[in-house]
């Protein structure tokens, strides 16, 4: 069943998301939709690490979209605007000052939120299929 056909919203993921990070703010539902703002606390590694993000802007949104990614209060990057039915893929090194802090908060903000028609009352960002730190 596609997200736009859902009659009832999924329950949000538990406090641990699919990447093993603790969700602090926002929702990442089991159908991979995420809220327009999502913040998670990751265990920061002691050695060089990369942030991996894969998101999809499906046709049902009927709009181009992009994402702002922050680490703590610092802007890491703003993605290029994704056309309808286009992937957003990020593979970005973490700044060195975040590697030895023990934890780092990473947030994703979809710049154009979307609400489906029908009984699904969620306000959504993009389909988030991967969000993790990799060494």
Give the helix/strand layout.
Blueprint: E1 22-25, E2 37-43, E3 50-57, E4 67-71, E5 74-78, E6 86-93, E7 103-110, E8 127-134
Antiparallel strand pairs: 1-2, 2-7, 3-6, 3-8, 4-5, 4-7
Describe the overall structure.
This protein has 135 residues and is mainly β. The chain has one domain: Jelly Rolls (Sandwich). It contains no helices and eight strands. Strands 1-2-7-4-5 form a five-stranded antiparallel sheet, with no helix packed on it. The protein has a three-stranded antiparallel sheet with strand order 6-3-8, with no helix packed on it.
Name the features.
single chain, 135 residues, mainly beta, Jelly Rolls, five-stranded antiparallel beta sheet, 0% helix, disordered N terminus
- Work out the helicity level: under 10%
CATH architecture: Sandwich
Rg for CA atoms: 15 Å
CATH topology: Jelly Rolls
Task: Report the sheet with the most strands, covering strand number, pairing sense and barrel closure.
Answer: 5 strands, antiparallel
Query: Quick one: overall form?
Result: globular
Spatial separation of the terminal alpha carbons = 35 Å
- CATH class designation: Mainly Beta
- Count of distinct strands: 8
Instruction: Output mean pLDDT.
Output: 84
Question: Which strand order spans the largest sheet, edge to edge or round the barrel?
Answer: 1-2-7-4-5
Number of helices: 0
Question: Which regions are unreliable across 5 or more consecutive residues at pLDDT < 50?
Answer: 1-18
Beta-strand content bin: 35-45%
Order of helices and strands: EEEEEEEE
Overall tally of domains: 1
């Amino acid at each position: 069943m596609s997200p736009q056909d859902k009659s009832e919203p999924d329950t949000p993921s538990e406090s641990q998301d699919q990447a093993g990070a603790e969700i602090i703010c926002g929702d990442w539902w089991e159908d991979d939709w995420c809220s327009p703002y999502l913040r998670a606390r990751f265990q920061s590694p002691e050695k060089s690490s990369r942030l991996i993000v894969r998101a999809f802007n499906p046709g049902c949104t009927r709009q181009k979209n992009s994402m702002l990614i922050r680490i703590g209060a610092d802007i890491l990057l703003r993605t290029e605007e994704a056309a309808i039915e286009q992937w957003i893929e990020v593979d970005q090194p973490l700044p060195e000052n975040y590697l030895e802090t023990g934890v780092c908060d990473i947030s994703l903000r979809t710049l154009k939120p979307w609400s489906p028609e029908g009984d699904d009352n969620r306000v959504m960002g993009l389909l988030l299929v991967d969000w993790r730190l990799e060494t």
